[in-house]
Amino acid sequence: MTSDMIEMQSETEDSARHVYLKVLSGFWSSYRRNPMGIIGVGILVFFIAAALLAPYATSYDPTQVFISDILQPPSWNHPFGTNEAGQDLYSQVLYGSRASLIVGFTAALIAATLGTLLGITAGYFGGLVRELLLRLTDFFIVIPTLVLMIVLASVLGPSLSSVILSIGLVGWTGTARVVMSQTLSVKERAFVESSRSAGAGDFYILRSHILPNVMPVVFAQTVLVVANSILYEAVLTFLGLGNPNQITWGQILQFAFVSGAITTSWWYALSPGLSIMLVVLGFFLTGYSLDEIFNPRVRKI
Amino acid sequence: MLTKAAYFIKKIVGVLLTIFLVLTFNFYIFRILPGNPFALLFRGAGMSSEVIRDLNTQFGLDQPLWMQYLIYLRNTASGNWGISYQTRTPVWDIILPSLSNTLVLLVVAAVISITAGILIGILLAWRRGTKIDVTASAMTLVVYSMPTFWLGLMLLFVGVIYFGLPVSGMESLRGATEGVFVQLQDRMRHMILPLLTLVLGLTGQYVLVMKGALLDVFTEDFMVTARAKGISNRKLLWDHGFRNGVLPMVTLVALNLGLAFGGAVQTETVFSWPGIGLLIYRAILSRDYPVLQGCFLIVAVAVISANFVADMVYPLLDPRVRTQ
Amino acid sequence: MLNVDGLRVHYKTGQGLLKAVDGVSFSLQKGEIVGIVGESGCGKTTVALSLVRLLPPVARILGGKVMLHDNNILTATEEQMRLVRWRKISMIFQGALNSLNPVLPVKEQIAEAIEAHEHLSEKELDERIDGLFKAVGLDVSRKNNFPHEFSGGMKQRVMIAMALACNPEIVIADEPTTALDLIVQYQILELIRDLRRKLQLSMILITHDLSVVAEICDKVVIMYAGKVVECGEICQIFEKPKHPYTRALIWSIPKMESEKTELHFISGSMPDLTGEVPACRFFGRCPHGQRICGEVEPPVENVEPNHVTSCHFWRETAK
Q1: Which of A36, A128, B187, C143 is in the most buried spot, having the most CB atoms within 10 Å?
Q2: B touches which chains (3+ CB pairs under 8 A)?
Q3: Number of domains in chain A
Q4: Tens digits of per-residue pLDDT, B263-295?
Q5: Does C150 reach chain B within 8 Å, measured CB to CB?
Q6: Least CB–CB distance from A142: residue in B149, B258, B293
Q7: Domains present along chain C, CATH in parentheses
């Protein structure tokens, strides 16, 4: 066989099944080598486990009031201290992790889906569609992100679903950009050409060729989006746009601030804040490591 | 390549288009509220029917929506940005002084963080792989993972308890009667913590980008040519290294302006600094939609304008994007 | 004038010690153009950079001598090197690539090379640069343009002008025509030939393209995997090549006159220089290789005056 034919054969093999297998097998061996990534995943596993096992990790109900223990510093009974209502902060942080993580994941899911759809559309179909989508993306990038989310969330009314929607509807631009450039490069590759000349329609190509080759990048990007979503959730609930009856880490911090206990009770804001920081760090470390694998142009920090 | 004039016009048109989109968005987003938002204006004190009629004509509340939109555009252009629910004063009068307070904070923070970012970035690129580099990069990532407001809360606690810094606001009441110098000093003491919060939040990114850009530049072919010519190290670093490495920084600074405002909102809330951010926070709490609407507009316009300026400045630094 | 003797350079890489240049020797006389030929990775650029001590920090010069007149470049201090660079030995890189600083006008880039070594007045500087531009066939009015405003061939001329700015004794040209299309290549080679004639230039021309060497070089050094496999005058090499690698290289140049037959190429690739290498580096790709080639390094032997090669069987394999 001539070298041309060999090339073409290996290109056609990059179809969906091959890509998935290649991704899975090569993935773990390269990911394993990166200490940053391992630490990141470790942190995430810890927090997800904590969220799932909350009822087993504490015997208190987070809303349970200990009248005699108002604003107490950390003690054996209350490892993270108590708040101004006499509630155990350890339980609150533990149970609060559930809502924080769920909001983060959901918002990121919305953003990722939107971003992928728009990115693929802009990348695959050129011309006017791409121009419009590029303008739209630029618009969202120029407007200050947090302020836009604040406007959206306040209009929708303070609740966790407003928070999720605001983050999701504003945070898709990063994914869209990355997906668009990936789509463009995949589109140019030989196996797409050969598929098309064999008579494959747009939908088929999108589903079997473009999408599988775009997903790894989306995956890496989404991890970073989750990190940012958790941060934004914390800010939005802190500013009062969440639901006071739903405990999230940001909500705890809101109570801490509004009660004026900040300057007197150092423990109040410490545990929820540290939790946010650690989880976000975990996602960032994991996301950067994934990015290194799937996006070879990225140079190590 | 476009001519200078054509490039300028193209950019201006882009800016105007974006501002127009912002206005449209700003108008419609607040109209999706259930019920008549301006009915809320009347809660509390009873108002005479004349006042109600006057407000109706001013804001066209009895007109169809598209008419209201045009009225909104006209009002906005002429400085009538609505009336605050909370204070019953024109939004325009409230926003302007707040904006200047925010800008003071942001501009100083930007200058400090960009300078620090550049200097530390150069240092880390020079000393790549050493303990300093690894520690600094790690610290940057950690700070980046914190919500800005939480960083502010921590700094507030430490600052107040251990350093006796003011808890909130921009100035102490008694300062108004003392001399200018004392007033200035007072202002500055109040500014330390919010400034520190913003600077810490912004610098990390600048450091990483500057370092990355310089490292990229060091591997470029023209650096080898420059070294082969036997020119001084200073010239090498400055004319060849820095002048190319700084280009991604300019782009980043422009891109970051939106994020900087996000940081400002959080910081002003925590420290009760009387800027746009605090205004937004209070507007959220009291459902003061006209103020929120006005703030959104002003912040969007500020960032868009700043981006425009960056777009004009960038060709001055990079001849490759210049026009003929 | 320039004598390279037993140069050895290694790179410290993640995979081990890469023996990039392992005992390279050749000489350059005044007014000569010496070509260094070899495929990618054979070490020719490393040799060039060693001559001006511009190797990256991961490189270690392990041994050998580079004598410029009576001074050993390899033992010179950084201060001494700064006087040598550009003044005595200048370099021409691939201009069509990113070898010129994108944010400085080309005039300034040439000027800074001159200013680093001489004190000239504003006017003298201007005149010198104008002269250089004319010498390489560039329009003087374009001195203040930026590199991206020039075509590939013109950028190469800028690089040549820059290299000549301080009237160096030796010019090293690293792949000066590689990124250019054929017509421009020819023009640049013509220019170099012309300049050599007018200025009595001594040059080292590095390339992977043997046909370029045939055009303008007096002497050729054939390198393979960090070693010199053959070295001689241009006619000797082309008419009586003695090393199997040289012969394969020459054979692979398509000739206009011959019948249309298959293209010849050398199968296989260079050995991995970080690991175990055979004593004769070409062993494994050489059609005449025998056991001794893998075990004993072939000595450098004289074929005729000015012509050396290192192969165990050069006498037997010569046609």
Answers
A1: C143
A2: A, C
A3: 2
A4: 999 999 999 999 999 999 998 888 888 888 899
A5: no
A6: B258
A7: 2-317 (3.40.50.300)
